[in-house]
Specification:
Layout: H1 3-19, E1 34-35, H2 36-46, H3 52-61, E2 67-69, E3 75-78, E4 92-93, E5 98-104, H4 108-114, E6 116-117, E7 124-126, H5 130-138, E8 143-149, H6 150-155, E9 160-162, E10 168-170, E11 172-173, E12 178-180
């Protein structure tokens, strides 16, 4: 599988496992796990189609570690970013003093009025470093990096979770915790 095919398949997996399993009539359990054989069979019937070996390669080499297998590789799920309700069984964690949120310049006015909302996702996504936040912000236009005072948020009783792929998650970031880099 060449890089272009891997990228196309990864996007397809993100779409199906995070947002629209019904596209291929895929069954997800309450924790977002799908049967690997079912995923491969139903994907092949639709597109782009892939083998277990190709799926394994995508899971192992995805730079954002978007997907995870269970121990015996019979089930797969997306690590975070769902717009459908999935119980990821996350345990509250103590975040570092500051985290970062990358966004596009066009979103700043709204964020500085309303805060950072999860919108159609289950959580707000925060990064541990400015570089990752910059990459996230660049996907939607000219990037702006926001500093989130997670120490203060945590002291105020707001919970944080750390996903399997090291993305920090929370429900909402109020304006009072946000500053620009």
């Amino acid at each position: 599988m060449n890089e272009q095919q891997k990228k196309k398949t990864s996007k397809f997996l993100s779409y199906v496992l995070r947002h629209h399993p019904e596209l291929i009539n895929l069954n997800l359990d309450e924790n977002g796990w799908a049967n690997v054989d079912e995923l491969i069979t139903k994907s092949t019937n639709d597109s782009p189609g892939f083998t277990f070996e190709e799926l394994d390669e995508i899971v192992q080499t995805n730079d954002k570690k978007r997907f995870i297998f269970n121990e015996d590789k019979t089930r797969i799920r997306a690590n975070q970013g769902h717009s459908i309700y999935i119980n990821l069984a996350l345990i509250p964690q103590q975040p570092p003093k500051f985290l970062y949120h990358g966004t596009a310049q066009s979103n700043i006015e709204s964020i500085l009025k309303k805060g950072i909302e999860k919108r159609n996702r289950q959580h707000v996504h925060l990064s541990q470093d400015k570089d990752t936040a910059t990459k996230v912000g660049m996907r939607h236009g000219k990037p702006v990096i926001l500093i989130i005072d997670t120490e203060k948020m945590s002291a105020d009783g707001i919970e944080f979770y750390l996903s399997e792929n090291d993305v920090w998650l929370t429900d909402f970031v109020d304006v009072k915790y946000i500053s620009q880099v």
